[in-house]
Amino acid sequence: MTDKFDVVVIGAGPAGYVCAIRAAQLGLKTACVEKWVDSKGKALLGGTCLNVGCIPSKALLDSSHKYYETQKHFKEHGIKVGSVEVDVPAMLARKNKIVKKLTTGVNGLFKANGVTLVQGTAKVLAGKQVEVTDQNGSVSTLSADNVVIATGSQPINIPPTPLDGDMVVDSTGALEFTEVPKRLGVIGAGVIGLELGSVWSRLGADVTVLEAQDKFLALADQQIAREGAKIFKKQKLDIRLGARVVGSDKGDKDITVKYLEQGSDEEQTITFDKLIVAVGRRPYTHNLLAQDSGINMDERGFIFVDEHCRTDVPGVFAIGDVVRGPMLAHKGSEEGVMVAELIADQKAQVNYDLVPSVIYTHPEIAWVGKTEEELKASGEEYKVGTFPFMASGRALAANDTDGMVKVIADKATDRILGVHVIGPSAAELVQQGVIAMEFASSAEDLALTMFSHPTVSEALHEAALAVDGHAIHIPNKK
């Protein structure tokens, strides 16, 4: 039996479920196929982000930060507390409750918008046919005028430290520790490694992060990255750059990791109780495409698409982590909306120049647009304004003064080229920068905009003023 739809979306993560909902809103008969199931065998929606990524990690980040603040900083506010203990199982239960609420919410949105949920594992056949195999092995076929592939990504494993689901885990396993490890190793100082490392560090673990690259946060503006490295060191995160992991020896209760420091052939060792492997993610495209599907991938498993996420087969699209660009939920969601609207014959596009990036450590690190290093390399002339949170009244009142805001503008036109923040509410401040840049604002536009006082947002205002040496609350550079 073959069911016919206008649109079949494969995957119910942030890219897929958003695409399916938007397609249904536009009057298209839409189905969404999802293979992930819960303990009761029911389809689990939301993908990596809602279930084992963005949302649960933020729940633990916030819980651990509150614990850390209670331990370390309440007395500065004049608040006296007795002995403070962490209840990890209760913390995990809260995290799971949040996840369930959100994933159940996606189910409700499917029903409200008339999206047909199909449970099973999909395979794209020739002629825009989608074969679905359910949990019992039964096979059915969906036929569609348009197919959207949104199967997401999965953690990369590395041979020197094979996962065992207990002592050596990936990012998913790191969200399920039932107690705080005494010695925790993290391989990879990227977004995931820093976030997970900071969670368990705040809760009391002695955390060492091993990073193969010799530059910290290579994709970020390096002035911001250097500030981040300084702050994390103060927080007792031991980040070792130029440390390439080459092997490991697992004992009954611990694991010894072997690594080489850059420029040295002498093997170093360090022993941990738990080890998190956070070296990146790869697209989930294994066994997804029939040989005659006509859809092409590169050697790493990414599906080839154009700027509108069209594959080499007319009527077949791919979005989110399975295509080029950063593996970010918001990027995938916007691609999902774009594709749904294109299918409905509307004009739509994604501005790939303005995809914001965020690291949800404390302080947060966020940026959008060009870094100073990129502009130097391209030879573009630019000007810079910075403002430290130490000079922000709101940040001082909140006892949250680490970091700065940096605004980069074109030297000739004054158009904002980049906004980079490390500090309180960095993600929210950068989003203000995204809005300004989407409307081609100049630094002067931001400088002439009234910001309410006292807010941490004033730091963005002052950084924009500082671009031309007009900052009010810090001395301007001559």
Can you walk through the features of this model?
This protein is 30% helix and 25% strand. With 478 residues, it is of the alpha/beta class. The protein folds into three domains: 2-155 and 282-352, FAD/NAD(P)-binding domain, CATH 3.50.50; 168-279, FAD/NAD(P)-binding domain (3-Layer(bba) Sandwich), CATH 3.50.50.60; 363-466, 2-Layer Sandwich (Enolase-like, domain 1), CATH 3.30.390. Strands 1, 2, 3, 4, 5, 6 and 17 form a seven-stranded mixed beta sheet that branches. A five-stranded parallel beta sheet has the order 8-15-9-10-11. A hairpin with a 5-residue loop joins β21 and β22 (416-423). It is globular and about 70 Å long.
